[in-house]
Amino acid sequence: MTIKKYDGSAGGWGALLSTTKHLIKSENVTTNIKTLLKTNQDHGFDCPGCAWGESEERSRFRFCENGAKAVNWEATSRRVTPAFFQQHPVSWLKEQSDYYLEYQGRLNHPVQYNPATDCYQAVSWQDAFALIAKHLNALESPNQAEFYTSGRASNEAAFLYQLFVRKFGSNNFPDCSNMCHEASGIGMKQAIGVGKGTVKMSDFEHADAIFVFGQNPGTNHPRMLDTLREASRRGAAIVSFNTLKERGLERFTNPQSPKEMLTDGSTQISQCYFMPKLGGDMAVVRGMVKALSVINEAQLAAGEESIFDLAFIAEHTQGLAQYLDAVQATPWHEITEQAGLSQSEIEQAATIYYQSKRVIITWAMGITQHKHSVNTIQEITNLQLLFGQIGKQGAGLCPVRGHSNVQGDRTMGIDEKPPASFIDNISQAFDFKAPSEPGHNTVEAIKAMLAGQSKVFIGLGGNFAAAAPETALTEQALASCHLTVNIATKLNRTHLIHGKDALILPCLGRTDVDLQAGKPQSVTVEDSFSMVHASAGVIESDIGEMRSEPAIIAGIAEATLSKQPIDWSWVIEDYDRIRTLIAKAIPGFNDMNNKIKQPGGFYLGNSAADKQWQTASKKAQFMTHDLPTHLLPANLRALSKDPVFVLQTMRSHDQYNTTIYGFDDRYRGVYGERKVIFVNHNDISALGFENGQLVDVEALWGDGVERKVYGFKLVEYEIPEGNIAAYFPETNPLVSIDGKGDLSDTPISKAIPVILSTAVLNSNRVDITLN
Ligand SMILES: Nc1nc2c(c(=O)[nH]1)N[C@H]1C(S)=C(S)[C@@H](COP(=O)(O)OP(=O)(O)OC[C@H]3O[C@@H](n4cnc5c(=O)[nH]c(N)nc54)[C@H](O)[C@@H]3O)O[C@H]1N2
Ligand SMILES: Nc1nc2c(c(=O)[nH]1)N[C@H]1C(S)=C(S)[C@@H](COP(=O)(O)OP(=O)(O)OC[C@H]3O[C@@H](n4cnc5c(=O)[nH]c(N)nc54)[C@H](O)[C@@H]3O)O[C@H]1N2
Ligand SMILES: [Mo]
Q: Is residue 404 within 6 Å of ligand 2 at its C-beta?
């Protein structure tokens, strides 16, 4: 392992070199280069890397280093065949690293677990579908099955999946969103009547300031850096709040700009970079509003106009007085203690905010994976409402989604608690009574499986065992099922934690040409800006027995329900037919087949952006909450006699969620190792430890359960004292299944109270490196 401080800008030659390295290492160099050139182009495919949108100027190449990694990873010529499974029993595969499992290549044949040999073995599609139907139809209640979705599934796949499951009789739709942006949806829905971001891509061209909270775009949304770079060059203020110094938020060289590349130029991204404590963002925003209220009062006293947008507030909102009372009642010492920023830093941020006519606020997992995430998002919304920064050009709220179609999947009804209107629409369009009782989210699904209430798990993509909290319990939950089914492109840990019966069903990915009845098909996705557009794979390779996700879902549905409520086989012969059904049932999708032919697709609209508030009061709602107390130093100290740290679990530059592409985290200067803990220099000294030392990490959830991971290397880093950071999924055993966000139920993976001790053993899975 090497640690080498990264002094360059994000992007630049490093990104280009890394893209090239990944291309060259792949077995399909030319095909993959050609493939990359079709990423995010009209008539190309939507990048499976992230849910950032496209600017209207679509002639340019639109891929980034990490998009290239995602594409290469999928477009490998390596194959996991039935012969591979015959040679490698499940018990052996379980001992291998996550990297090893996915590196073996694309799954190319449906396989079924054989307990006699402990191996998966080839099965026909027909027998696989029949086995699923047998298990599902034997259940006492349709609610005894869990239907998981990861956010790569297309609109077409997701729509068919939910239609099948609802006709079968359940709303049990745990999904990756439950672990991701759930709080954004809930927080905004209550406050402004819509659970999606209110901005369009073009708004970034008009914003005077962009506030970025709890997000690492250099790694996770690299195309967003391009947008921020343009904004910064035009003079917009970019203000970042991040507990870590993330290189991509500081400086960026666009690898697709010949001038910047040749002149070694780069663009400063953030004008101000604040490093609050983990979970301190709600206090930061409260402090900003407090500072702004003081400025406001001074203005009024001087006989000047209010700095708040009083006309907007009067016409469009409710609840301001109560909120301002709460702000006034929150003392500065409470705010600064929680925020980990000084009053003057917060005032500086507030000044930039109010001097900017148009402000966009973006956020991701640093905001959504906390206990108080819904409250934080509502505090952010309050600030924007106070200044009329929603529903005008260049302004608004922008939760930056994760998986490339996670937003679309929700629109299509992958929702365990669907609104009544959605259920009515499905019931009417397909002439059956869709179930209205709420189903299970991710955490509830794990609990239902553990309790023996749910007996079947079906995963449409994803890696449930590795992504979900409390690895030991999640694995126990899956292993207790009568049947586990995974529809997947690549082998992963979830496939090895199998039920009594188990199937792995190999599917086509985003980059593959999808032929049905001899004709290539396209699917559609929705980005973070509510743009729906078509995506068609471009790679023709040896797909063996792989089938498309819609075809697999249709196969399962037909075996289980026969031709109810639709003729499944007929519908998948031409995906226009699926879209006709979507158009019939989902608002905003009328004439979908035509609308997706427009370059760039079509905009679904956003009621809040139109200043239509779909809340009970028909107004935008200021939401008033107390600041959280669980992360206050005194409360942390009470958990142990040893120093208690707050741990966030996050992504390295070389991973896609549970998919590990490699062992480097270039911008953070870590090479060849993933089991690291980023920690402040002073904390290392105070503990009497040394930089580079191995430690064991124990979580303290106060429930007496031991949750520990072993043998992590300390890496000195710019991070607030008392806060530490490490990668998931290695640290998921530390996340408690009961440590959930209020209202969102999202596992708290950004604030785990832990203690560190000198490593006693260095166990865990053996990691196998590429070279
Ligand atoms: N290459 C790549 N792209 C991806 C993914 C991937 O794994 N790899 N995953 C996709 C998915 S599903 C998602 S959801 C997104 C995730 O995108 P991000 O949200 O950027 O992902 P994380 O790595 O979890 O990073 C969290 C960031 O927030 C900061 N942070 C953590 N806690 C706090 C806090 O309390 N306050 C503040 N202010 N900052 C905090 C961390 O330091 C870090 O910079 O990316 C998507 N895109
Ligand atoms: N501790 C901690 N835990 C977290 C997080 C965190 O920050 N910290 N982040 C959470 C977040 S934001 C998310 S979104 C979840 C992610 O949870 P998931 O979405 O469940 O996990 P992924 O790692 O994205 O899934 C990877 C697998 O998807 C399959 N796959 C890839 N492409 C396709 C495809 O096109 N079709 C199909 N059918 N399968 C495909 C491959 O087999 C691959 O192994 O993890 C969550 N877990
Ligand atoms: Mo996510």
A: no
Q: How many Å apart are CA 499 and CA 584, to the nearest integer?
A: 37
User: Which of 152, 178, 219 has most ligand 1 atoms within 8 Å of CB, for mutation?
Assistant: 219
Per-residue pLDDT tens digits for 289-328: 999 999 999 999 999 999 999 999 999 999 999 999 999 9
Q: What is the residue with the minimal CA distance to atom 36 of ligand 2? A: 461
Mean pLDDT confidence for 563-587: 98
Is the overall model pTM greater than 0.85, yes or no?
yes
Q: Tell me the average pLDDT of the chain.
A: 93
- Would the CB of 179 count as within 6 Å of ligand 2? yes
647 lines ligand 2 (CB under 6 A): no
Domains by residue range for the chain, with CATH: 2-74 (no CATH), 79-180+425-597 (3.40.50.740), 182-400 (3.40.228.10), 634-758 (2.40.40.20)
Per DSSP, 700 falls in state -
As a whole number of angstroms, the distance between CA 480 and CA 621 comes to: 44
Give the Å distances, CA to CA, from 436 to 14, 189, 444, 635: 51, 19, 17, 41
At residue 560, what are phi and psi to the nearest 5 degrees?
-85, -40
Distance of CA 735 from the midpoint of ligand 3 (Å): 16
Partner residues linked to 274 by β-bridges: 241
Tokens of 346: 């917060």
Atom 17 in ligand 1: which residue has the minimum CA distance?
220
The backbone torsions φ and ψ at residue 728, rounded to the nearest 5 degrees and listed phi first, read -100, 160
Q: Which two tokens stand for residue 308?
A: 């708040």
Report the chain's C-alpha Rg in angstroms: 25
Closest listed ligand to the CA of 649: 2
Per DSSP bridges, beta strands 267-268 and 251-253 are antiparallel
Q: What is the DSSP letter of 275?
A: -
What is 534-603 written as a DSSP string?
EE---B----TT-B-HHHHHHHHHHHHHSS-SS-HHHHHTSHHHHHHHHHHHSTT-TTHHHHTTSTT-EE
CA of residue 201 to ligand 1 center, whole Å: 20
Q: What is the DSSP string of 2-51?
A: EE----S-EEHHHHHHHHHHHHHHSS-HHHHHHHHHTBTSTTSB--SS--
Residue whose CA is closest, atom 16 of ligand 1? Answer: 402
Ligand 2 within 6 A of CB of 187? no
Question: Ligand 2: distance of its center to the CA of 467 in Å?
Answer: 6
Q: In this structure, is the dihedral angle defined by the CA atoms of residues 111, 114, 115 and 117, taken in order, positive or negative? A: negative
Report the distance separating Cα 620 and Cα 719, nearest Å.
Answer: 36
Q: Taking CA 145 as the corner, what is the angle to CA 144 and CA 147, rounded to the nearest 5 degrees? A: 150
> Residue 582: what residue type?
I
Q: Which residues neighbour 456 within 8 Å (Cβ) at sequence distance 6 or greater?
A: 135, 136, 139, 144, 145, 146, 481, 482, 483, 484, 485, 499
Query: Whole-angstrom Cα distance, residue 757 to residue 771?
Result: 32
- Give the neighbor-by-neighbor strand order of the sheet with 531-535: 523-526, 531-535, 602-603
Query: What pLDDT digit, counting tens, does each position of 427-456 carry?
Result: 999 999 999 999 999 999 999 999 999 999
The ligand whose atoms approach the alpha carbon of 51 most closely is 1
Token pair for residue 58?
């679509």
